[in-house]
Specification:
Layout lengths: L18 H10 L6 E4 L12 H11 L3 E3 L3 H5 L3 H4 L7 H4 L7 E2 L7 E4 L8 E4 H8 L11 H17 L4 H8 L1 E5 L20 H12 L7
Parallel strand pairs: 2-6
Antiparallel strand pairs: 1-5, 2-5, 3-4, 4-6
């Protein structure tokens, strides 16, 4: 009900529980823009972004999915990770060495290839979602896309790595991570450790006001 009161917001109520993927599928059928920004309720923005420049970069490089960095996604696309310094390095074990896309305006801003489809905050082509993730005939559950489609993507890349065709396969998914050298843009609110009586949430809000950007919903 509080969402219904927000200005410039259309709150679409699902007739029944649909899960993340199901709700996104419903919403995409009501979107008339070429791109969509997918935001989860527990993934707040920590600082502002220049959305226009990100869309221009996606258009320039032909990127269909651009993830906004979290602490975890930055770690999994770092040079150390891809160099095989971590035992769990999937890129190293698959013999994959992705090349970053350098933005022309500055040496600090790059697009790093992602080897996984994250549900975390991202900008994506609406048609890419419809033609690839939700294409007719594809089996998908109402849970999280990364738990089904993301796993399918990893299997395809792992198989392609053995034949040296992983770049062609990755181009189908066209998943990249934006990195401006300034750390995470997206945070994570841990509901499992939430204790309203301790005032922890209010403390976190005040801390972010001092150290970063806080969105306003008023």
């Amino acid at each position: 009900s509080r969402l219904d009161a927000l200005a410039h917001v259309r709150h679409v109520r699902a007739p029944e529980h649909k899960g993340f993927a199901g709700c996104l599928h419903i919403a995409l059928r009501k979107v008339f823009t070429p791109y969509v920004l997918v935001l989860q309720h527990d993934r707040p923005c920590l600082r502002a972004i220049d959305a226009t420049s990100l869309l221009e970069a996606m258009e320039h490089f032909g990127v269909k999915y651009l993830g906004l960095p979290t602490k975890a996604s930055l770690a999994r696309t770092s040079e150390e990770y891809l160099a095989g310094s971590l035992r769990t390095d999937q890129a190293s074990s698959w013999r994959i060495r992705p090349e970053v896309l350098q933005l022309k305006d500055t040496s600090d801003r790059v697009l790093r290839p992602l080897l996984f489809w994250y549900d975390s905050a991202h900008i994506c082509s609406v048609e890419h979602y419809k033609d690839l993730v939700f294409r007719k005939g594809r089996e998908w559950s109402g849970g999280f896309i990364e738990d089904s489609f993301g796993q399918e993507m990893q299997i395809a890349l792992r198989q392609a790595s053995s034949t040296g065709t992983w770049r062609e396969v990755h181009q189908i998914y066209s998943t990249y991570l934006y990195d401006d050298g300034c750390g995470p843009i997206i945070g994570h609110l841990d509901g499992r450790r939430y204790r309203p009586e301790t005032g922890r949430t209010l403390m976190e809000v005040e801390k972010r006001k001092l150290t970063g950007w806080m969105p306003s919903f008023t």
